[in-house]
User: Fold this.
Amino acid sequence: MSLRESSALRQSSVVVAAGRPAPEPGAPLNSGIPLSATFHAGTDANYLRQGGSEITRAFETALGELEGGLALGFSSGMAAIAAVIEGLPTGSVIVAPRSVYSGSSMLLDEQVRLGRALVRRVDISDTAAVLKALRLVPAPALLWVETPTNPMFEVADLPVLTEAAHAVGALVAVDSTWNSPVVLRPLEHGADIVMHSATKYLAGHSDVLMGALVAKDSKVWAGLKLRRDLGGASPGALETFLTLRGMRTLAVRMDRAQANAADLARRLDAHPGVERVLYPGLPADPGHERVTRLHQGYGAMISFLVTGGAAEAEAVCDRVALITHATSLGGVESLIERRARYAVDAANGAPENLLRFSVGIEHVEDLWDDLVQALAG
Ligand SMILES: *Cc1c(COP(=O)(O)O)cnc(C)c1O
Assistant:
């Protein structure tokens, strides 16, 4: 029985079982790291840049199973985003979140500066505002979604947005990096393309840079593959091996990190050194209803506003000991940083005292002890 036929498997089994070599006597359980740029002639995929390596196919099979579509590996998350956005015809209209990953924000601004695209930025959680932007003339070619947004936790009502986008002829692409496929499957809610920075939860160990796209439709997939192959954005064999290796533990890592995050968000919410917590698992959070309805969990990211402004927020980053003061997210280790230190996040509305906290898989009491001593000063 192939995994494609066994669609009854749950995500935590698919991450373990998908993308394995055929179970022949003496065959390895894992694809290796074929350090080869070219492969013997006789197939139509015989060059690494064209995704012709066995390890690339193994990764793409596994991620495709997890998202319910056709996957493509990229050399980074940004390379994957660029393949979608820069592949649009010149003059295309893009509707995108106001608060969005900084790299996506800068890439969109650059498209506008070069005269290649028109971008309508919206609060992605304000469904009426998104529908209005979708229905303006000229009609958009793409709705770019991030949900929850980075670092403001705005949550999109995905089924409503995808239906409205399709009604005006726009494709919908979702940056689902913060969720991973065990928390959200955007294609099931009508999206056409899912994007991941595999650097984050998929690889999970902060030791690799890689990205991915997953398309529902084979024509869309073929267009994205052409962009990847012509742009030279294919991943290397070592990176792809490490990401697939990391994905085997994705479900258990997410279980633990999400449980830690739920607990720490509640405790931070009651701490006098914290003004406000942004985390959709809290019942009072504006995104709570949508995440409860559409996602399989509340994720392992938290933003919180520190009492005492930017200086105090920076001081918390200096004082943490178990938690690491560093950018990025999605690894086994907890990371924290003040996002408004980046001009692009500050301009997109990140409060100066906001700390973005990527909750790892350490013991929750050790994480809490570290936060308490850092917040106390
Ligand atoms: C990190 C990140 C990206 C960019 O991915 P890279 O792998 O760093 O190129 C895109 N979107 C989100 C939400 C991210 O966190």
Notes: The chain has a mean pLDDT of 96. The pocket of pyridoxal-5'-phosphate is lined by residues 76-78, 101, 103, 150, 175, 177-178, 197, 199-200, 209, 211, 329 (CB under 6 Å). The domain at 3-247 is CATH 3.40.640.10 (Aspartate Aminotransferase; domain 2).
